[in-house]
Amino acid sequence: AAGVIQSPRHLIKEKRETATLKCYPIPRHDTVYWYQQGPGQDPQFLISFYEKMQSDKGSIPDRFSAQQFSDYHSELNMSSLELGDSALYFCASSLGRVEAFFGQGTRLTVV
Amino acid sequence: KQEVTQIPAALSVPEGENLVLNCSFTDSAIYNLQWFRQDPGKGLTSLLLIQSSQREQTSGRLNASLDKSSGRSTLYIAASQPGDSATYLCAVPSGGGADGLTFGKGTHLIIQP
Q1: I need a surface site. Which of A45, B20, B22, B82 has the fewest CB within 10 A?
Q2: Is A82 strand, coil or helix?
């Protein structure tokens, strides 16, 4: 069965650089979510999209933005990266906001 | 604001034991609850989803129960195996019309061979 695909799996950036993370949800899922999981922490909700429209915002910094495209893939754009942005970033998708299926995540390291 | 607590934070048991992981949440107005497994540095694998109308859900050696009124869920793992070693996370909808899930901090489980 198709799963949520995230790319890249690993990313190393320097402080103040920009990063773009991509997410390809499960086909026919209507909702995409982004989460951030810091070292030793539980995942924190960042932002969600329902049918390509932004649905809700959580603890997403102003330096971050996201969008969902016509083919339903989503991108998380992160600018002016800080050391504290180093984390695992997960994308999840669901159909009808019921069961959420998570991707394998992108590990971002800011040096 | 929804808060999720998981007890114990860590657990180490010999192979073959049956064990129970606990999850509690503060806002009982949830429509479902999910249990996830996470291996170190890896993604979240959905183990079980319990709808608010259900009392329990089973998948293989896993059984999850939900008591909405008391704000509690348990994950029962039967006949534990070393391959069950991982962190188990409980998550509920954040509520208040918000999207997204609120997670507990997880139970780090080690099954000794």
Answers
A1: B82
A2: coil
Provide residues of B within 8 Å CB-CB of chain A. Answer: 32, 34, 36, 41-46, 49, 89, 91, 94, 98-106
The model's pLDDT over A25-34, given as tens digits with 9 standing for 90+, comes to 999 999 999 9
Determine whether the interchain pair A88/B106 forms a contact, defined as Cβ–Cβ distance below 8 Å. no
Contact B107, B90 (CB under 8 A): no
Beta strands A74-78 and A64-68: pairing type? antiparallel
Chain A residues with a Cβ under 8 Å from any Cβ in chain B: 31, 33, 35, 41-43, 45, 48, 50, 55-56, 58, 88, 90, 92, 97-105, 107
Q: Which residues of A48-65 are buried (b: 16+ CB within 10 A; e: fewer)?
A: bbbeeeebbebebeeebe
Q: Which residue has the higher pLDDT, A89 or B100?
A: A89
Tell the residue number behind the tokens 């192979």, with chain if given.
B15
pLDDT, one tens digit per residue, over B16-28 is 999 999 999 999 8
